[in-house]
Amino acid sequence: MELKGQAGASVLHPMSNFAMGARFSEQLLTLLSQVRTVVTSTESLMKSGVSPPVNLP
């Protein structure tokens, strides 16, 4: 009985971890696409001869 409960918990636990991981990677992808948008707009500004408003290190 006790073993069955442990097995059920171990099956349930990775699923919640997976859900959290999926949500995290989704946010990460959104952040990456936003960064890429900023980078491309900055590059196009530099190509047109205008200095970017952000001071890059």
Automatic annotation (TrEMBL):
<protein>
    <submittedName>
        <fullName>Uncharacterized protein</fullName>
    </submittedName>
</protein>
